Structure formats: structure tokens, C-alpha cells
User: What shape does this take?
Amino acid sequence: MVLLPSLALALLCLLRAGAEVPVQPGFSAEKFAGTWHVIATASNCSVFLKMKDGMKSSITTVTFKPEGDLAMEILWPLEDGCQKLELLFEHSGQAGHYVAAQEKRDLRVVETDYSCYAIVHQLQQRGHAPSAALQLLVRGQDGSPQLLQKFEDLIPTVGLTKDMMAVLPKSDRCTKTIS
Ligand SMILES: *[C@@H]1O[C@H](CO)[C@@H](O)[C@H](O)[C@H]1NC(C)=O
Assistant: This one.
């Protein structure tokens, strides 16, 4: 009697593990480029889970290289300033799907309307504990409740849970450095 539900859960896990994270059909890099505000993140990374309640919304600027690689500049507000990070992802051959081979990172644009929101999935396989993250990006600084709901509904479909989610409040720590 007790075994049955856990067996069903285990099966679900297996099904999920085998399922590919989808990519926005007909993805257009040109339309996706530009500045985004990361207003919510769900991740099973232990460092994120420890810090998530103090984290603020970061600003990500996406540009594409002529060969199709994706460059990301992240401005991340910290307690005492603004940290700038730069990441480069190579084109995977599938539109909307990028990889950073050395760091064993995988990035997929799961869904976007280009002008308001995007949902991005990242897998980080470096180190002993691989981790996954789903992020909600918006062009402005705020997301509607409907958008947050859509994001929350997607979380379990990539094998994460809602308690791993943080809605990231705005911060002006980094906006001052953008002219
Ligand atoms: C996080 O989730 C991914 C995808 O389901 C999984 O491969 C990874 O092992 C998980 N990592 C942790 C630390 O739970």
C-alpha cells in the first residue's frame, strides 16, 4: 500500500529525466537579443537555495556573434555593489539551444514572445553536483501575476519544485552603471 505511490513517483522521475527540455519553436536570435531583467529563478543548486531569499533581480544583456554564438553579460546586484559576469555559449546546431563545453553548461530558451518575456533553462554539469535552473526574464522590470503563474507551472515540468523558486526584487545597484 505504501510502496505503490513511491513507485509511481520513481517512474515519473525516470520519465522526466528522459524528456528533453523544449526550445521555443522557430527561435529568432535577432529578436531575442538585448536586455532582460531576471525577475524569478528556480534552481536546485545548493548555493542558490542558501542565498535565494536575499537575491535581487539581475540584468542580462544578450548579444549574438556572427557565427551564432551567444554572449551574455550579467549585472548582478550584491549587498555592496554590482558584480559583472560574462558568459559565452556556443551554438549547438539547434536554434535556441546553446552550450558552453568547457564549463559543461547547457542553455535553452524554452519559451519567449521576444517583446515581453522569456523562460530560459540552464543545466550546469561541472563539479560533483550537477544543477538545473529555470529563469523568468522580462524586458521591463516587472512581470504580471499571469506571467509568474505561467513560470510556476513550468517548474515541475523540468524536474524542479516550487519551493526552489525565488521571486527576485528589483534593485538599483546595477542600473546606475547602464547608460
Ligand atoms: C538538479 O536537477 C537536475 C535535472 O533534473 C539533475 O540532473 C541534478 O542532479 C539536480 N541536482 C541537484 C543538486 O539536486
